[in-house]
């Protein structure tokens, strides 16, 4: 049923025939009683298996500094894991905190601290401001948005382009509105578009004048090392750029080994100016005596070096790159030339961002659900789940087995075509 003619160019009769054909294809799909899930960006169990040497580590109980990792203390994390990830993130070890198993928790902690106490450069706690606003590049990571919503922080969207957020729009907004206190950025292999923030955009964001003196860039580098090709993108060095521009406290960087080792038992990192690190651990110390240093030590021993992390990521790539290739193959075979969808071809990260005809994303997700294929709810990559064009769907192909990815994408294509045909016939 491949049709090289754009769907919108079909005559009424042709379109009616196409719709009939798609209804039949969809009924056949439904009859197969599939049960597939493309909702969350989780590592497959074969990826988790790559790190099972962790289960017999550490082989000692003291870190490089001679600290007994079984005991309390060391809020900033053990020396060797800080050094290793400082190397990987191009910062100094004293600019890094190694924490628990979740960088998202660290992001929430930072927001709580800013809210209750203010940052190193704040005039007052954010919670005492009349209004706090964040800039949210879209499409973006749903949990960033739900976290802001939980605080009652207002969200203004800007487009996420191939080279990062629309920096002109951001610069214009932050210049005049002192309620704008921050922006989320997933710089290297954005969730969900896979785009990479260019050096120029990073420099602009690091140096732009802001009406708020304590404007923060939440630089969430969750996929910094998660390359899908041999062309390994390097993240812009946001801390140096900001320091050079006279705004050393503006960026706060986050990363974790959730998708390097174990998603539920990795190590998370925060990086910033030395003052930011002191500020963070100072507040952290009111509720913690030290992190799980034993987990940090076993990670340090498992990787051996920063290069060990890079080498390990190649093994992930070998498992997941073929799944992304299947997404690309099926979508282009089934949808190519029909002008009913565009999608990203990421070179890293965990997602493909699919844009269908305006006004049909919710219908596609509903059709898929009724056929047994769970997709992320339409709009979930937008604040409050509101995609004003109802066109974006986030695809997460890492978790299912390769054959399931193929089946699921074929099913998604069927739903996209039926929704498009219905929409154009209406
Ligand atoms: N940041 C982004 C952009 C993510 O996509 C995810 C997980 O999907 C996280 C953070 C969660 O990180 P962590 O497991 O370290 O809490």
Structure description:
With 426 residues, the chain is α/β, with parallel strands linked by helices. The protein has two domains: 7-47 and 311-425, Aspartate Aminotransferase, domain 1 (Alpha-Beta Complex); 65-305, Aspartate Aminotransferase, domain 2, CATH 3.40.640. It has 13 helices and 13 strands. The strands form three sheets. Strands 2-9-8-7-6-3-4-5 form an eight-stranded mixed sheet, sandwiched between helices. A three-stranded antiparallel sheet has the order 10-11-13, with helices on one face. The chain has a two-stranded parallel ribbon with strand order 1-12. Helix 5 links the parallel strand 3 (133-138) and strand 4 (154-161). Helix 1 (12-31) packs antiparallel against helix 13, helix 7 (199-207) packs across helix 8 (238-244) and helix 11 packs across helix 13 (402-425). The radius of gyration is 23 Å and the shape is globular. The two termini are 21 Å apart.
């Amino acid at each position: 049923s491949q049709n090289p003619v754009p769907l919108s160019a079909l005559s009424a009769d042709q379109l009616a025939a196409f719709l009939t054909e798609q209804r039949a294809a969809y009924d056949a799909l439904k009859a197969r009683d599939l049960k597939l899930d493309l909702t969350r960006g989780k590592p497959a169990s074969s990826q988790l298996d790559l790190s099972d040497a962790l289960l017999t580590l550490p082989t000692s109980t003291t870190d490089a500094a001679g600290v007994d990792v079984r005991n309390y203390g060391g809020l900033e994390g053990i020396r060797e894991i800080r050094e290793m990830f400082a190397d990987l993130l191009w910062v100094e070890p004293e600019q890094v905190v190694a924490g628990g198993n979740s960088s998202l928790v660290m992001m929430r902690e930072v927001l709580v601290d800013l809210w209750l106490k203010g940052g190193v450069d704040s005039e007052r706690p954010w919670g005492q401001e009349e209004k706090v606003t964040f800039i949210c590049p879209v499409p973006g990571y749903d949990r960033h948005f739900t976290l802001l919503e939980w605080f009652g922080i207002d969200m203004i969207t800007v487009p996420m382009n191939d080279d990062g957020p629309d920096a002109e729009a951001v610069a214009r907004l932050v210049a005049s509105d002192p309620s704008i206190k921050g922006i989320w950025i997933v710089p290297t292999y954005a969730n969900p578009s896979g785009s990479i923030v260019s050096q120029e955009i990073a420099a602009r964001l690091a140096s732009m004048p802001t009406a708020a003196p304590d404007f923060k860039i939440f630089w969430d580098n969750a996929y910094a090392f998660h390359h899908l090709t041999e062309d390994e993108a390097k993240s812009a060095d946001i801390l140096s750029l900001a320091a050079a521009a006279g705004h050393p406290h503006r960026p706060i960087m986050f990363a974790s080994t959730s998708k390097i080792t174990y998603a539920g038992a990795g190590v998370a990192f925060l990086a910033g100016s030395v003052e930011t690190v002191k500020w963070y651990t100072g507040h952290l110390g009111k509720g913690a005596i030290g992190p799980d240093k034993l987990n940090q030590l076993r990670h340090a021993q498992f990787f051996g070096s920063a290069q060990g992390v890079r080498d390990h990521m190649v093994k992930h790539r070998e498992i997941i790159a073929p799944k992304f290739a299947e997404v690309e193959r099926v979508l282009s075979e089934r949808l190519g030339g029909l002008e009913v969808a565009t999608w990203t071809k990421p070179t890293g990260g965990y997602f493909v961002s699919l844009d269908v005809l305006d006004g049909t994303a919710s219908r596609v997700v509903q059709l898929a659900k009724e056929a047994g294929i769970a997709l992320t709810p339409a709009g979930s990559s937008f604040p409050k789940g509101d995609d004003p064009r109802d066109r974006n769907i986030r695809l997460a192909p890492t978790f299912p087995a390769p054959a399931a990815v193929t089946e699921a994408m074929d099913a998604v294509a069927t739903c996209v075509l039926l929704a498009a045909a219905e929409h154009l016939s209406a």
